[in-house]
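Q: How would the structure tokens look for this protein?
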Amino acid sequence: MPATRSRTENWRGCLQNLYERGGALEITLPRYLPDGKLSGAEENEESQLRNLIWRVRIMNLRDDAIFVEEASVLGRKIQLDPGKEIIAIIAIGQNRWVFRTTIDAIEPVPVAGGRTMMCLRLAMPDKVERCQRRNFYRVPTVGLRLPEVELHPLLVVESAKSVEDAIRAIYAERRDNPVAGRIGPDGVQREETETFPLPIVGPGTKTTLLNIGGGGVGLLAQPEDRGAFESERLFWLRIDLGHAHGAPIGIVARLRHTHYDSAQRLYAGMSFEFGHNPEHENFVVDEICRYVAGVQR
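A: Here is the predicted structure in token form.
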């Protein structure tokens, strides 16, 4: 029996091993179309929200439940409501298995030192499906659309402040004067979008946002784009959550670590930087929370 098939059939053992090593699940909210149908990865939905994926540590396992820490960003808990459907990914090396589950409850779980931690209690699935190695998070029954991140080496960090301030002003204007879209010459309504000037940066490249953690993101770059990470450490990111959310979020991030997969794609762990503009931190957290609220509606 091939090793990958064996692991898929023994996914509970893999999940147990991941828990015993202090590992994490990756979780996200499914995206739904305006008619209430579940969105699929193969559909070209430029106006739809993207999937943000959180890495959350597995805190306990039972035969009927998986307990994971609550998702957070920059120290703020992300509100995920009991009863909501969740898509979860078991990631071990370059192998990934995906399953649907629900948040049954948010409840305390004992941790070290006699303390307790509030955790999401997820229903244990009956089965999982294996992701394709070359197309992350794409399986026949679960469609995920990950955000695109435009990345530029940031040459003068101070130049980012005015652009970040402009982004916040545009978002504030949209909230005060919402415009769903413009009617084009062909009579079709299109989403309202904005563009910003860039800070003082080098040439850009496209990456994919694989996951978001407490203080940063994990990005995936294709082999031909790896050179962007070879000599620079500080970057300007434009994170596109989909036109339904609004303009892309601009943010400064520092490269912390990298590794390669078997296809020679580069995984880059980035931490957000706000020392030059502390106001921008609350804005980023607020917008990510607003994104989550929009997906859960």
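The radius of gyration is 20 Å.

Confidence is low (pLDDT under 50) at residues 41-47, 182-190.

Upvote if useful.
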